[in-house]
Amino acid sequence: MEREEYLAAIKPRMPEKRYIHTIGVMETAIALAKVYGENEKNAEIAAILHDIAKYADIAWMEKIVRDEKLDHRLIGWGSELLHGPVGAYIAEHEFGIVEEDILNAIRFHTTGRVGMSRLEKILFVADMIEPNRKFNGVERLRKKAQKNLDKAVSACVRHTLAFLIDTKQPIYPLSIDCYNDLMKREDSEG
To answer: How much is the pTM?
Structure first.
């Protein structure tokens, strides 16, 4: 499929504001792919499909988790966390995406994980810094993303965790594992 076909397929599945966000993520992911030598088409596809399940029925998504034997810890976390893994399922089963790197980028774009690939990092960062995001500190994150992808990922993870803690929300275990892994890597790099 080409870009316009993917965009036409996702547009009816989300509100206009989320569609605009998706376009921003796509443009940002492609730009970061150019900077960091990643496959631009893969970045484009992952970005377009990353929120495909964001507005899907929660009970349906939980059924997918159970039926496909996905991480059972996802049950009860709601759309914010379900939509990544279920989005990867939709990308594979509806759109025929077979590249594991694209599927993992979609699967882990909200939580991060230990040992993320370059494409996973690009989508994770692009989702947070796309041009329509307007939160305190986003400009700092955008600047980091242009200089060092690993430092940008680390800063984005820390920003997300601080937000969750400040708003007294639970933190999914993969995100904690991701943070710990990033901190260990930063320590070992000096």
So the answer is: 0.96
